[in-house]
Amino acid sequence: MDSDLDRLGVALSLTEEEESGLVVPAGLWHAEPISRSFYIVGRLLSTKPFHPEALQSTLRAAFNPGKGLDFKMIEGDRFLLRFFHPLDRDRVLVRCPWAYDKHLLILAPVNPTDNPSLVDLNFCDFHVHIHGLPLGKMSKEVCSYIGNKLGRFKEADLDKEGMAWGSSVRIRVAIDVNKPLTRALKIRTILGDEQLVTFTYERLPNFCYYCGCLGHLSRQCELQFSDGFF
User: Whole-model pTM?
Assistant: First the structure.
């Protein structure tokens, strides 16, 4: 879906006139835009092609926004969603992860001052359960330390005393979708103590049991076919 100009841009050498550019008034460029729209940019993490019309129809039904939703494909495999009330947009973001045909949808908010083509779409929020922690270690500090090992720690489900209790503690983490999911970690202290903790992920879409990555199944894993069966 790339344009001819996009393909040429890899080796584009600007002319003197192009390099001189265009000077625009500061008030025009830096003025805060007046917008009644609220945006999300996204992409589908899949090796399979998809039909934009089918995706649009599915998202409208799944999100069910009270004030409406517009959908538009932009460059590459990215799409842009326009909502007309911040509550509709925020409900979608807080309920991540979403999936389409069991493939992960990576979604991120976009400000009117942002270029949606440049927004980072390599992280997705997941709820993760940490199993194996002693009761006295189910604190925000410990959860944050472990969560930042998995990705980017967001929050933990704790009681009013700042602790969790039970067989596991639930945290929310932004995970790099290009890396294998972490199944377990051996926690060590400088005193020589060791504790094995394991992880389960809520609403996990298609992923590969062979390499642990999202976006494809084991039978489609290139690593499996390159591991020397012949």
Answer: 0.81
Length of the chain: 230
In this structure, are residues 154 and 170 in contact, taking their beta carbons and an 8 Å threshold? no
The interaxial angle of helices 86-94 and 52-63, nearest 10 deg, is 100
What percentage of residues in the chain have a pLDDT greater than 70? Answer: 87
How far is it, in rounded angstroms, from Cα 118 to Cα 136? 43
Where b means 16+ CB within 10 Å and e means fewer, 70-93 reads ebeeeeebbbbbbbeeeebbeebe
List the structure tokens of 167: 């067989």
Average pLDDT score, the chain? 88
What is the spatial distance between Cα 45 and Cα 55, in angstroms, rounded to a whole number?
13
- Which is it for strands 69-73 and 123-131: parallel, antiparallel or unpaired? unpaired
